[in-house]
Amino acid sequence: MADEGDVLTNLESNPDAGAGGNGADNQPVAGLISQYIKDLSVENPKAPESFQWTEQPELDVQINIASREINEEVFEIELKIGAAAKTSQGTAYIVELAYCGLLGLRNMPEEHAHMFMYAEAPRILFPFARRIMADATRDAGFAPLLLDPIDFQALYAQQLERKMAEEATAMGGEAAPGDNG
């Protein structure tokens, strides 16, 4: 028999702690279901000559986040990372990765779901994608490309602020011609 202060007793005696009276699951839930490499391309176009180059290459790294709805509760989050190392002698390497995660979302308000898909999910996926990029460049015969950690929460907040500022400017710009007529 459970004591009065027991965890099981507390859970059973609090019907408002999650499920409705009919046992419905109505609490917000988000979680990573699976993660995988969707596409990986490694080009080493000037090998073996590029291994003799002494000039420090210029790195161009691009990162993009996309999402796609699989069904009502499952979304594919795609973290795309492209890196190219170039010198005056040519391109040393090009690595392109599409690293994905299947994200389960249920009972979550749209604004929270959007934030989770574009800030939290990339934060979870990035360390794995970072390792794949390092391994790919190392396996191509170069020093591993160690990408710096990224603060996806701060980037999301910046994008949100920029979007709100653009919308405010657009609304202000549209209202002005109407007021002059």
Layout of helices and strands:
Layout: H1 7-12, E1 29-43, E2 58-71, E3 74-87, E4 90-106, H2 110-139, H3 152-180
Antiparallel strand pairs: 1-4, 2-3, 3-4
Task: Give an overview in words.
The chain is α+β, with helices and mostly antiparallel strands and 181 residues long. The chain has a domain at 29-145: SecB-like (Bacterial Protein-export protein SecB, Roll). 36% of the residues lie in helices and 33% in strands. It has helices at 7-12, 110-139, 152-180; strands at residues 29-43, 58-71, 74-87, 90-106. It has a four-stranded antiparallel sheet. Strand 3 (74-87) and strand 4 form a beta hairpin. Helix 2 crosses helix 3 (152-180). It starts with 6 loop residues before the first helix and ends with a helix. Residues 175-181 have low confidence and may be disordered.
